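Input.
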Amino acid sequence: MQTIIITGASDGIGAAAARQLKNKGYNVVLVGRSKEKTERIAKELNAPSHLADYSRLADVKRLASELKQYNRIDVLVNNAGGIMGAREVTEDGFEKTFQVNHLAPFLLTKLLIEQLIDSEAKVIQTSSAAANAFGKKFDVTDLNNDKGYAPSNGLWLWQTREHLIHPGTRPTLWEKRDLNRGLSSRSGAF
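Output.
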C-alpha cells in the first residue's frame, strides 16, 4: 500500500484527508505543529506522526531527516499553511506568512527530492481560493497576513504541472479565527 505524508494533518483539510485516505487503506504519515492535536489524530488513525513548526526552518530540516526513515514516499501532501496575524519576521529572517506557506514546504520538498524521485512520488500543494480575497498585488516589502497569503501560495505554480480539484469546504482554524473579520464571506470557499 502507498505511503502518503500529509503536513498540516492535525486539523482541517489535512486531518480530513488523512481520515479518508486511512479509511481507504493507505499508509498515512501525519505531520503537525501542535503536539496535542497531532497525537490525537495519530492515535485515532493508528498512524505515525511527526512534529514541525514551519515558522522555524530548523524544524523543517529535522522533519526531512526523520522522514528519511520511510523507504518509500508515494505522495507528499504539502498542506500546512495559513494566514498569520500582523506582520511578523521569523527567527530565520523571513516574513512568517511567506515562510510558512512557501519557503518551508519548498525546503521540505527539496530536502526529500532524491527520495521522492526514487519513489516516483507525486507532490500535492494545497492552496485556496481564499487567497484571492486579499487582492493580487505582490509587494515583497509588505507581506503581512492579508498581502502575503496569495503570493506565497501562488509561487508554487511557477514550477509545477497543475491539476485543480475542489474537495468541498472544511472547517479550518483559519475560518474560525477570521470569521469575525469578514474574510470568509469574501473568500468564495465558505
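The domain at 3-187 is CATH 3.40.50.720 (Rossmann fold).
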